[in-house]
Amino acid sequence: MNRSRGLGWQWKAIIPIIGVLLLGLLAFKAVVLALGIPNGNWILIVAAAGAVAICFVTLSVLLVLIERPLEELKKTITHVRGGDLDARVKFGKRTDDVGQLGRQFNEMIQQLAENRVELERLHQIEMARAEHLATIGELAAGLAHEIRNPLAGIAGVVEVMGKELPEQSSSRGVLPEVQGEIQHIQSILNDLLAYARPRPPEFHAADLNTTIEQAVFLARQQVRTKPIQIVFEPNKGVPRVVHDPVQIQQVVLNLLLNGIQAIAKEGKIEVALRSEREFAVVRITDNGKGIAKESLPKIFKPFYTTRREGTGLGLPLAKGIVESHKGKIEVTSELGQGAQFEVWLPLRKPDGRHASGHGMPR
């Protein structure tokens, strides 16, 4: 729908002046008539001509001082909008307020140009880094495959040796430690393969409460002999969410196991589910040892871990899974005050449809 442009600024500026001059002429005419001044009509004509001249001069001044800079500014903005960040206004050389405006506009465009150059530089760095990481990922995945088979053979040999060793042999004491280290290596290789070649999510609408309950059940099996409580109250008010239940269960279980390992003795882990705006939010809170402030920015980086038995791939894997769901993970923690992780999953499908499978009105 087209809107009328209304009066231009020129008329808005000149009309009050014309009005004042007309009122002045009427008042002047009344005075001339009241005093009976000879040749009053000629005086009125001269005064009217002066008023017209004043209007003309005022309009000319406005055109020079304001109209031309405005037109130049409009044209420059059009060039900038088209991507030409070398465009500048010339009236920035003036020493009045309009010139100051021009200088500030030019400085803004200069800053935009510098920011674009910096963004392009950072983009090139990120692209090179991504290619480098992709190459390393492929190499790591290949090495992991090559290592897994010999490692399985070693595990089999160790098991056979354990059966053949005499009961009184002193070598039996180191076998559990060797088997534990083999399992640790296998765990690292499995996580490395999952990180280097992640499985794409298999989306379908499911109850997020059920996914969380399954993860909680598995985590409780890990603490049956420990004084650690894992509490979860399902929230049936949260709608069905389109997600990959297996992958999200893996994410929640990983966060629960991290919480368990962060609790030295007796403790509690609380799991809660809520909906907020367009997201379902899974919050996992523990009262463990917490995470140091300097470690928080690093915990999602591959192979970074604060635990001797950790692989350093659990949280990067979890982050990758959540991001493949178009979600995010947030963490808040202080050393000695426990930690809180929040997993945000969109209620809408990745293609923009609602979790129920029906399109949402825009």
Describe this structure in words.
The protein is an alpha+beta fold. It folds into three domains: 9-84; 127-164 and 173-196; 204-346, 2-Layer Sandwich (Heat Shock Protein 90). The chain is built from seven helices and seven strands. It has helices at 9-35, 40-81, 97-164, 175-196, 208-222, 245-262, 314-324, and strands at 204-206, 228-232, 241-243, 267-276, 279-286, 328-333, 339-346. The chain has a five-stranded mixed beta sheet with strand order 2-4-5-7-6, covered by helices on one side. It has a two-stranded antiparallel ribbon with strand order 1-3. Helix 3 (97-164) packs antiparallel against helix 4, helix 5 packs parallel to helix 6 and helix 6 runs antiparallel to helix 7 (314-324). The longest helix is centred in the middle third of the chain and has 68 residues, at 97-164. Mean pLDDT is 80; it is low at 352-362.
Summarize the structure.
Helix content is 56%, strand content 12%. By secondary structure, the protein is α+β, with helices and mostly antiparallel strands. The chain has three domains: 76 residues; 62 residues; 143 residues, Heat Shock Protein 90, CATH 3.30.565.10.
Q: Which descriptors apply to this entry?
A:
362 residues; alpha+beta; 3 domains; two-stranded antiparallel sheet; 56% helix; elongated
How would the blueprint of this fold be written?
Elements: H1 9-35, H2 40-81, H3 97-164, H4 175-196, E1 204-206, H5 208-222, E2 228-232, E3 241-243, H6 245-262, E4 267-276, E5 279-286, H7 314-324, E6 328-333, E7 339-346
